[in-house]
Amino acid sequence: MSAPSEVRSRSRARLRLRLSVAGLAASAALAALVQPTQAAGTPPSPDKALQKQLNDLVRTAGGPPGVIALMRQGDRTAVYRAGVADTSTGRPPRPTDHMRIASVAKAFSGAVALRLVDRNKLHLDDTIGELLPSLPADWHQVTLRQLLAHTSGLPDFSTAPEFVAILRADPRHHFDSRRLLEFVADKDLLFPPGSEYAYSNSDNIAVALMAEAATGRPYERLLDKLVYQPLDLRQTSLPQGFRLPRPYLHGYDVTPPAPPEDISEVLGASGVWASGGIVSTPKDLNAFVRAWAGGRGFLSKETRRAQRTFIPGAASEPAGPGVNAGGLAIFRYTTRCGTVYGHTGNFPGYTQLAVGTADGKRSLTFSITTQTSKTVKPELLAKVRAVQEDFVCALLRH
Description:
The chain is an alpha+beta fold. The chain has eleven helices and 13 strands. The protein has a nine-stranded antiparallel beta sheet, with helices on both faces. Strands 4-7 form a two-stranded antiparallel ribbon. Strand 12 and strand 13 form a beta hairpin. Helix 1 packs antiparallel against helix 6 (161-169) and helix 2 runs antiparallel to helix 11.
């Protein structure tokens, strides 16, 4: 069920004033709590300290109404959750609730590209000029490798004034996803390709377009064939509209002392597409990151080595736990307890972390129902990152 009209109108009014793809005010706290539950396999013992941290997180002023974390170790999965999935019903978050995974979608476009590299359909040194000659000549030297590493220098379409103005006027505007780069087609590269790191939504749009050009198939079909089917991701999709599949984890905007506003379906997905439009569930996302971080057979050893040439200090958005470093559509998070690999993301109403170990045997997804980043409630992000690091430590020590 969509948000009531009065909630939608208030949300849209706020969005017109503050909206950009990368920024929206974060949600508020709820006191309703549920205890951790366990999924398939023999579950590990619930960690009361971890549960308390989630309880505290949803009580934090400006914090998320709900949070759910799936921790998988071998064939055992523990589910920790606090708060609610829907403030109107009070039901708890569930592993099968749909949610916007935000920039974790960049790992999916990376997966498509690198699996095509393994099939010799793409090469890491293929250039925009070779595969997408209609794009600006100044961009033609940019390689697939640089796009995946965010060292391309492509200007970010999501910050273009015209793009932002359209969203402010109509957050549900339906964009032609394959033409998003036109918003910055008159711009030069920000720096010589390969010389700097700059996280950009444009990079993954170009990655998807290169995959289409190399195969003659729509990106959505490539996702299905190369990612969804091999990993049995039955509840993952790339929608074009603003609707979410039911049931879903509701995302909220809260500006205390105002009550939480449901903004789950206020914004359409066509304007982020391969850079942030995927909808999944905690269960599916956990299965994906398990393979992406180190699943045997998902990528060849040679491609995996190329993927893990890391740039120290290159952070995902928002930053993940510990010290961040960036590879090809994957980030390394070095915590006080060890290292995990994956991606983060933030979108109006949601903040995501999905990580796994290098052997693919342990994985963690951590989802909250409000947006936070270095510019949107940075104090909340600092607290979330600290909790995430404790979850990573628990993941690695058992």
